[in-house]
């Protein structure tokens, strides 16, 4: 199935607007991570929740739309976790982004990621990482699709019944 899961981590800008600092795109056997440079100069600050700092990043922020659009261009279905992220990504991409919460997906805290992040700021277990989250959500979604496709139909007792007799 051609699906992609996106997750991102933010810092607050000057007007408390969300600024994407780390964005991850997960598909089958691939996790791409992008770290965006600050869009403007501001006093240095960071987040204890995701370990990111304002000065972090190597992709120009003005490329956010292009990077995300190109990363998901070949996928008919895009997923993210949470209505805030889905709304932000839908507005950015000008296409529908499906919310994993609608499928009863658990939060990232309930997963044990198989992916090890290479960022030094993500070496602590309680720090959020977009790459780990995107991969975990993708694997959960594939499991969800697989289990839903193998749902057993309820037995129909009106169909072909037979009585067997033993004759030995």
Please give a structural write-up.
The longest helix has 20 residues, at 130-149. The protein starts with a strand and ends in a 19-residue tail after the last helix. The model has no long low-confidence stretch (mean pLDDT 83). The protein has one domain: Ribonuclease H-like superfamily/Ribonuclease H (Nucleotidyltransferase, domain 5, 2-Layer Sandwich), CATH 3.30.420.10. 24% of the residues lie in helices and 19% in strands. With 168 residues, the chain is of the alpha/beta class.
Instruction: Return the CATH class.
Output: Alpha Beta
Backbone shape:
globular
- Please, what is the average pLDDT? 83
State the order of secondary-structure elements, H for helix, E for strand.
EEEHEHEH
The order of strands across the largest sheet is 3-2-1-4-5
> CATH homologous superfamily name?
Ribonuclease H-like superfamily/Ribonuclease H
- Helical percentage: 10-25%
The CATH architecture term is: 2-Layer Sandwich
Strands, total number: 5
Question: Approximately what portion of the residues adopt beta-strand conformation?
Answer: 15-25%
Number of helices: 3
- Report the CATH topology name: Nucleotidyltransferase, domain 5
Rg result: 21 Å
Uncertain ranges: none
Architecture blueprint of SSEs:
Blueprint: E1 3-12, E2 18-27, E3 30-35, H1 64-72, E4 77-80, H2 83-93, E5 98-99, H3 130-149
Keywords:
168 residues, alpha/beta, Nucleotidyltransferase, domain 5, 5-stranded mixed sheet, 3 helices, globular
Write a brief structural summary.
This protein is an alpha/beta fold. It is built from three helices and five strands. Helix content is 24%, strand content 19%.
